[in-house]
């Protein structure tokens, strides 16, 4: 049975006992996006190689060369949360078109300046930074649209295919970029042509986006969140989501140390191996080749090897890679080592990316991905600066050895942060007629004006009274503390459960929302997995009536001249 696109009908997964990992490519919309993304990624990796090698011709400073990686990663560190918030608030299709156009324009201006020889080391860093502002703002929305294109069960294969796209480009792009730079007498001319081709490559993605008729998975009926509030909601979710936190800790630790490979590879190529731009491109392409192999094999590997095991094998192999780069200055040894390192890199990054996408619901997905990308690139930024400084003041061998030791020694501390363990929660939105029995803002107000005033008023205190027999007390407290995480992730500022001293079977759950509007949003955010926890708590309640719920709004002080009726419409 073919997979249908989201615009033509429901997505149906093919039951296949031996999945190949290529099923998402049977969906036309995803396939078009994948092809366009691959073309654009080839241009990006060509630019990465050409830009870094142009920097080596402009300066001999290892720090400035390493800062090219920092300029590429710093925007994500600074803007990851903002990018995720905007992608969850605004139309993702329009955002993607805007930021793709931004990147096209930035690279086009850099190409013109490079052709005319007006690029200094700091100008090259500045335009690399501007380009990656667009990339930082684009990436959370770009990754968050994946569940809109394929069914949930195909997301791991989709992430692997996206990794294959990027790493196929990584295998081909660096060599092409190095070849183009080496093919001209002047590095400025070769780099200028690479920058121009990269600018054109963004047009392929813009064309796909312009022709996409988007159907969002989650669309709130409530007013849009403000950006600051959306960022705070995303941070609150991360704070109370242990599975997501594990992915973030693993991502930062891994990239912080392994960033030495990416940031110092050009220095190793030029100083230790005496290679030119083409040689550097081949080394970079070796990483990409290994990454492509990993992306095509990961669907099979993932079904046989636990996620934690994939990460630990990749971690210790990269310790070996860093030591090989530090001391084995022979291309015949380094190239196959880098191919396997590319395999390890993609295996880890794809596993972590999949864990983030599967651990969060649709309403907060872009913010979670923005936080993940910010954490990932934060490791790259701080690692690139540190290893560049160490290489500047000592040698590349010392910097690479230090990063290898740090990667190995950090593992015992982070091994307790598990990835994709146990059954995955069902994050599909929960819809029930039960919500209709809860009071809406219009039932509590006499007019639209009062409703608008009420919806923005707060804080709001929700109190739920349960009757729990003594023999169920332990089971109830276990379930209610699971519900605590749900309340806090969905927007509660404070939460508590209290037992009556006089009547021990009477327990009161209390949580506070910032406003009535935030409370309404929290009701929209309930997933099927969350509802299962809520249902278990309600089942433990004993009594003829369901748990009693009261809704209270903060009683602000009023002057004698204000009308109390305006605060209490029900009294009229």
Question: Features of this protein?
Answer:
572 residues, 66% helix, 2 domains, four-stranded antiparallel β-sheet, elongated, Growth Hormone, Chain: A, mainly alpha, disordered N terminus
Secondary structure: elements and pairs:
Layout: H1 28-58, H2 62-89, H3 92-115, H4 121-144, H5 146-149, H6 155-182, H7 187-210, H8 227-239, H9 242-272, H10 277-302, H11 307-327, H12 331-359, H13 365-393, H14 396-414, H15 448-455, E1 460-467, H16 473-489, E2 494-499, E3 506-513, H17 516-524, H18 528-539, E4 548-553
Antiparallel strand pairs: 1-3, 1-4, 2-3
Helix pairs in contact: 1-6, 1-7, 2-4, 2-8, 2-9, 2-13, 3-4, 3-7, 4-13, 6-7, 6-10, 6-12, 9-10, 9-11, 9-12, 9-13, 9-14, 10-12, 11-12, 11-14, 13-14, 16-18
Structure description:
The chain has 572 residues and is mainly alpha-helical. The chain folds into 2 domains: 383 residues, Growth Hormone, Chain: A; 139 residues, Alpha-Beta Plaits (2-Layer Sandwich). Helices cover 66% and strands 5% of the residues. The protein contains 18 helices and 4 strands. The chain has a 4-stranded antiparallel sheet. Strand 2 and strand 3 form a beta hairpin. Helix 9 runs antiparallel to helix 14. It starts with 27 loop residues before the first helix and ends in a 19-residue tail after the last strand. The relative contact order is 0.11. The N terminus is likely disordered.
């Amino acid at each position: 049975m073919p997979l249908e696109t989201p615009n033509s009908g429901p997505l149906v997964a093919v039951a296949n006992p031996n999945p190949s990992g290529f099923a998402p490519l049977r969906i036309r919309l995803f396939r078009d996006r994948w092809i366009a993304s691959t073309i654009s990624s080839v241009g990006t990796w060509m630019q990465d190689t050409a830009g870094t090698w142009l920097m080596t011709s402009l300066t001999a400073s290892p720090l400035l060369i390493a800062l090219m990686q920092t300029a590429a990663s710093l925007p994500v560190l600074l803007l990851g949360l903002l990018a995720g918030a905007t992608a969850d608030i605004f139309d993702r299709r329009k955002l993607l078109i805007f930021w793709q156009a931004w990147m096209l324009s930035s690279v086009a201006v850099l190409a013109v300046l490079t052709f005319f020889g007006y690029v200094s080391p700091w100008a090259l860093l500045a335009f690399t930074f501007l380009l990656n502002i667009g990339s930082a703002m684009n990436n959370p929305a770009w990754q968050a649209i994946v569940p809109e294109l394929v069914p949930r069960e195909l997301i791991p294969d989709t992430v692997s295919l996206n990794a294959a796209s990027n790493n196929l480009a990584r295998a081909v792009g660096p060599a092409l970029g190095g070849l183009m730079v080496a093919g001209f007498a002047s590095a400025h001319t070769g780099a200028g042509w690479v920058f121009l081709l990269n600018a054109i490559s963004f047009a392929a993605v813009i064309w796909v986006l312009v022709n996409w008729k988007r159907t969002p998975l989650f669309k709130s009926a409530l007013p849009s969140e403000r950006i600051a509030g959306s960022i705070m909601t995303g941070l609150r979710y991360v704070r109370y989501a242990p599975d997501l936190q594990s992915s973030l800790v693993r991502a930062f630790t891994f990239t912080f140390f392994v960033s030495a490979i990416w940031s110092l590879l050009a220095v190793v190529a030029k100083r230790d191996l005496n290679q030119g731009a083409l040689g550097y491109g081949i080394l970079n392409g070796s990483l990409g080749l290994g990454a492509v192999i990993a992306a095509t094999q990961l669907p099979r590997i993932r079904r046989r090897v636990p996620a934690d095991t994939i990460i630990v094998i990749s971690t210790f192999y990269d310790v070996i890679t860093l030591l090989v780069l530090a001391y084995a200055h022979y291309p015949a040894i380094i190239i196959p080592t880098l191919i396997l390192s590319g395999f390890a890199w993609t295996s880890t990054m794809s596993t972590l990316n999949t864990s983030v996408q599967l651990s969060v619901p649709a309403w907060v997905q872009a913010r979670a991905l923005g936080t993940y990308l910010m954490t990932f690139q934060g490791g790259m930024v701080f690692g690139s600066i540190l290893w560049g400084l160490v290489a500047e003041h000592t040698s590349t061998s010392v910097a690479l050895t230090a990063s290898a030791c740090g990667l190995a020694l950090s593992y015992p501390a982070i091994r307790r942060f598990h990835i994709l363990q146990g059954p995955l929660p069902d994050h599909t939105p929960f819809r029930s007629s039960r919500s209709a029995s809860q009071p809406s803002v219009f039932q509590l107000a006499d007019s639209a004006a009062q409703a608008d005033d009420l919806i923005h008023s707060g804080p709001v205190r929700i109190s739920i009274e349960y009757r729990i027999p003594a023999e169920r007390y332990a089971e109830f407290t276990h379930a209610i503390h699971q519900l605590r995480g749900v309340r806090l992730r969905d927007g509660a500022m404070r939460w508590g459960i209290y037992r009556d001293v006089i009547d021990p079977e009477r327990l009161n759950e209390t949580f506070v929302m910032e406003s009535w509007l935030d409370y309404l949003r929290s009701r929209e955010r309930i997933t099927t997995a969350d509802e299962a926890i809520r249902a278990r708590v309600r089942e433990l309640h004993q009594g003829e009536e369901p748990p009693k719920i009261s809704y209270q709004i903060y009683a602000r002080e009023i002057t004698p001249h204000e009308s109390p009726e305006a605060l209490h419409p029900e009294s009229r």
